[in-house]
């Protein structure tokens, strides 16, 4: 007599496999979204570190006139712009970092030439000791994850932990 699996046993086995693979899919997809958020945070931190470095070294592109006064950073259309502002008022774009996630932030950050210190505006209002600028990058595509990026008064850039809301 031949032994075989019954139809019910096969359906139970297939059902168990489907449930396990659905759970794995959700977990993997969540991990991919977390990586997307971390990659965007890395791009933003890289842009701010570039701005700080340019300000500290007073680096201006060849052929530009005037001395570097301040390096300005801001977001526009999912891009982080890093611009140099010279003593004669010219603005030169150094960098555009494309960020993969939508960013709704209209603030501008200024790093002052020679020191790299963080300022609130281009006219010299500085962040005080202990003050920190915080930029929060968020993913709301069914995952509600966010990650804070901190810039202290000395211009040092760091990242917090991913928070899932």
SS elements, strand count: 9
Average pLDDT confidence is 87
Shape: elongated
**Total number of domains:** 1
The percent of residues in helical segments reads 25-40%
Which value, in Å, is the CA radius of gyration?
24 Å
Strand coverage percent: 25-35%
List the helices and strands and how they pair.
Elements: H1 7-57, E1 68-76, E2 79-86, E3 91-98, E4 108-112, E5 118-119, E6 132-139, E7 145-152, E8 157-159, E9 163-164
Antiparallel strand pairs: 1-2, 1-4, 2-3, 4-5, 6-7, 7-8, 7-9
Give a concise summary.
The chain has 165 residues and is α+β, with helices and mostly antiparallel strands. The protein has one helix spanning 7-57, and strands at residues 68-76, 79-86, 91-98, 108-112, 118-119, 132-139, 145-152, 157-159, 163-164.
Name a few traits of the molecule.
165 residues, alpha+beta, five-stranded antiparallel β-sheet, four-stranded antiparallel β-sheet, 9 strands, 31% helix, elongated
Question: What this model shows, in words?
Answer:
31% of the residues lie in helices and 32% in strands. The chain is built from 1 helix and 9 strands, in the order H-E-E-E-E-E-E-E-E-E. A hairpin with a 4-residue loop joins strand 7 and strand 8 (157-159). The protein has one domain (7-125).
């Amino acid at each position: 007599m031949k032994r075989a699996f019954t139809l019910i046993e096969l359906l139970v086995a297939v059902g168990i496999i489907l449930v396990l693979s659905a759970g794995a899919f959700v977990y993997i997809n969540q991990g991919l979204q977390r990586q997307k958020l971390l990659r965007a945070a890395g791009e933003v931190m890289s842009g701010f570190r570039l701005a700080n470095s340019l300000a500290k070294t007073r680096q201006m592109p060849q052929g530009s006139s005037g001395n570097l006064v301040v390096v300005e950073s801001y977001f526009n259309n999912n891009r982080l712009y890093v611009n140099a502002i010279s003593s004669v008022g010219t603005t030169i774009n150094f960098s555009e970092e494309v960020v993969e996630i939508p960013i709704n932030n209209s603030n501008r950050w200024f790093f002052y030439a020679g020191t790299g210190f963080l300022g609130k505006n281009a006219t010299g209002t500085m962040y005080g000791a202990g003050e920190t600028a915080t930029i929060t990058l968020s993913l709301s595509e069914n995952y509600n994850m966010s990650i804070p990026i901190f810039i202290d008064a000395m211009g040092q850039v760091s990242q917090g932990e991913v928070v899932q809301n």
